[in-house]
Amino acid sequence: MYVCGPTVYDHPHIGNARSVVVYDILYRILIKLFGKNHVIYVRNITDIDDKIIDKAVQDEITIAELTKKTTEYFHQDMDYLSCLRPNFEPRATDHVQDMINIIDLLLAKEVAYKSADHVYFDVTKATDYAKLSGQSFDELFNSVRIDSSEGKKNPGDFVLWKPAKVEEDVSAKFDSPYGVGRPGWHIECSAMSHKFLGETFDIHGGGVDLVFPHHTNEIAQSRSAFSGSEYAKTWVHNGFLTVNHEKMSKSLGNFTTVKDLINKGIRGDVARLFLLGNHYRKPLDYNDKAINDANQMITYWYRAIEPIEAKTKCNESQISAEFMSALFEDMNTHKAIKIINDYAKEIYLSKTDDIKIEYASKLLSCARFIGLMNASCKEWFYSHVDSDKVEKLIKERKLAKEAKNWPLADSIRNKLLNSDIVIEDKADGSTTWKKKT
């Protein structure tokens, strides 16, 4: 499986995160089906691009410094979302020669041409160019703005190699038979997928916004370069993510990064559950209610297993057939999550510990399969609670009650309640506490 990865010039936004989480689920399913040693997952890093060059100039740092720190941001954010690392994560700048090799093949086959210090791909010479999009050739180019640079034979021809500008950082300049410059975006993925997976591989994934031109152009250049290549046998595209039902945009002030979620104190499990809450091909809207709903749901699951956590079994044998069947149904995570929630309901309704433990084992095993609930109940409910402070306040309240200072005792209870701590006075005179559900 090859998945288009980040262009590392800034913090990843939540639309980027949705794509990574979707293909993380697919990776987990493939491992379940074929075994870890029989699945190769490649996700590239684009570390040379016009946006990167411009951002490095803006930040007054080198391209290497920018891409290094931004790649680290990406990894930290995806770890927060509990995403597994791919088997290979090639960087575009390490594979420029592989790109040149493919461009040479395309030039030799006369499906590419040199013009005005550029190398272009001639889209009229590609077989079934528009097939992936399901549109006609004319419809495809009417739907997007096309760069009609001088020197192109056809407006839709795309760049394979472009010349460097004099003022650009030396790290953005590469030697080639066509002059000093850098590769176009599309050739990067063709070269890196070929390097790690060969001329034909099983699955290619990415956001629906990449269908055209990026994935369409990948197919065209790879199939043209390698006779008999299917390129990718199966294509998977995840849907758009909006914010409060509007397209995410810096100009609208709703541009939301994964770092923003972390800064708001939203837990990684909550963000991941939200991102899995709708079918991967459908649009998904980020809003406060959706995040609150995800938080309430996963807290409901933790509260269900809390009394029997020590007896709960969590292993592959506990993952239910109905749960896996939902995931095999075109990665229907919405249905799979409902099944987990149904297990939580059964725990609350069950009268015997044996039944509770059975459903708790299913719940925890299924949740962990999709990357959720890796924390213990104690960690979930109390990791952000200062236990010593709570105990100290409870002792102060006890003293206030003994002194019959009821207003002080009530104010301490209210102070704890405002911090989401619920206390309960027992018949034996002791007081227990827990985090409010």
UniProtKB/TrEMBL annotation:
<keyword id="KW-0479">Metal-binding</keyword>
<feature type="binding site">
    <location>
        <position position="250"/>
    </location>
    <ligand>
        <name>ATP</name>
    </ligand>
</feature>
<feature type="binding site">
    <location>
        <position position="189"/>
    </location>
    <ligand>
        <name>Zn(2+)</name>
    </ligand>
</feature>
<keyword id="KW-0862">Zinc</keyword>
<feature type="binding site">
    <location>
        <position position="214"/>
    </location>
    <ligand>
        <name>Zn(2+)</name>
    </ligand>
</feature>
<keyword id="KW-0067">ATP-binding</keyword>
<feature type="domain" description="Cysteinyl-tRNA synthetase class Ia DALR">
    <location>
        <begin position="322"/>
        <end position="381"/>
    </location>
</feature>
<comment type="similarity">
    <text>Belongs to the class-I aminoacyl-tRNA synthetase family.</text>
</comment>
<comment type="subunit">
    <text>Monomer.</text>
</comment>
<keyword id="KW-0547">Nucleotide-binding</keyword>
<feature type="binding site">
    <location>
        <position position="4"/>
    </location>
    <ligand>
        <name>Zn(2+)</name>
    </ligand>
</feature>
<feature type="short sequence motif" description="'KMSKS' region">
    <location>
        <begin position="247"/>
        <end position="251"/>
    </location>
</feature>
<dbReference type="InterPro" id="IPR032678">
    <property type="entry name" value="tRNA-synt_1_cat_dom"/>
</dbReference>
<dbReference type="InterPro" id="IPR015273">
    <property type="entry name" value="Cys-tRNA-synt_Ia_DALR"/>
</dbReference>
<keyword id="KW-0436">Ligase</keyword>
<keyword id="KW-0030">Aminoacyl-tRNA synthetase</keyword>
<dbReference type="InterPro" id="IPR014729">
    <property type="entry name" value="Rossmann-like_a/b/a_fold"/>
</dbReference>
<keyword id="KW-0963">Cytoplasm</keyword>
<dbReference type="Pfam" id="PF01406">
    <property type="entry name" value="tRNA-synt_1e"/>
</dbReference>
<dbReference type="InterPro" id="IPR015803">
    <property type="entry name" value="Cys-tRNA-ligase"/>
</dbReference>
<feature type="binding site">
    <location>
        <position position="218"/>
    </location>
    <ligand>
        <name>Zn(2+)</name>
    </ligand>
</feature>
<protein>
    <recommendedName>
        <fullName>Cysteine--tRNA ligase</fullName>
        <ecNumber>6.1.1.16</ecNumber>
    </recommendedName>
</protein>
<dbReference type="GO" id="GO:0016874">
    <property type="term" value="F:ligase activity"/>
</dbReference>
<dbReference type="InterPro" id="IPR024909">
    <property type="entry name" value="Cys-tRNA/MSH_ligase"/>
</dbReference>
<keyword id="KW-0648">Protein biosynthesis</keyword>
<feature type="short sequence motif" description="'HIGH' region">
    <location>
        <begin position="6"/>
        <end position="16"/>
    </location>
</feature>
<dbReference type="InterPro" id="IPR009080">
    <property type="entry name" value="tRNAsynth_Ia_anticodon-bd"/>
</dbReference>
